[in-house]
Specification:
Elements: E1 2-10, E2 20-28, H1 33-41, H2 52-65, E3 67-70, E4 73-76, H3 82-89, H4 98-111, H5 123-135, H6 141-144, E5 150-152, E6 169-171, H7 172-187, E7 197-199, H8 204-213, E8 233-236, H9 247-255, H10 257-265, E9 271-274, E10 277-283
Antiparallel strand pairs: 1-2, 2-3, 3-4, 5-6, 7-8, 8-10, 9-10
Helix pairs in contact: 2-4
The chain binds zinc ion.
Length: about 290
Amino acid sequence: MIQFRFFILIFGILSGTPALECRGEENLSVPDPSLLDQYLMATSGTCPDEIKPAIAFENRRLMDELEWAISERLQKGWSIYYPLISEFLGTSAKPDSLGFAEAVSRWQLYSGCRNPADGLLEGSTLLSIFLELQSRRFNKAGKIGLEKKMVVVEEKYIFDRQRAKDRRQLGQETFNAYEKMIIAARKSGIKGDYLKIISGYRSVPYQDELRARMPNLQPNQLATQSVHSTGRAIDLYVGGDPVNSNVLNRKNQTDSPAYRWLLKNARSFGFVPYYFEPWHWEYVGTD
Ligand SMILES: [Zn+2]
């Protein structure tokens, strides 16, 4: 049995984005601890074949039990994020499989986030994946500024048709990309309200007003420098309660065909995800 502790705290990764924190104690309980002992004491290298079943076994536990935190809010496991992570790693292998551990190992080798690159999806590896995803977003909304031309989105694309016209705006380029994307999604069988727009452009004063109306907001919600103020962010309907960050709600959303479709296709239309909010997508272009 090996125990090792780690504590990683990263402040202010991105403007308007919560600090990520990872805290965990791993109690490795695996089919052949002596082999794993030897391996974890090694200083470099990838996972030998004889260790892989033990790593896959441990990943199954970590998927539900790994403790980590966002702005000091305890999070448990990474099963909600499995669809996003597997897409990121370019694997369709199940989370407790050898194939998945190999994909994790490849990322660890490439990123240098864990040495040895054993394929264990523990805290530092999870963080490194989220940091990479965050780096692909528009992360300095205040500096990017508003898209040059804004448009009022047609009602047919709006989740709540009662929404006032000035609350239905998006940047022109973002809307053009969105329209292409939703046409493709409908052709692929994503129907009904899925991928309709819940919220697009939100001015800074409106964002402040929303925040004032919700005194119990968590630090990660309604960021002060939201990308929504640039006209380049869209909250899309991906199921359940549209923008509720409750764990069960997000689990339902990340299981939805609409979200899975976005993970596979949104990038080719220029959109990238925010790992914590399955509904939030940002237009960064296709170059
Ligand atoms: Zn959003």
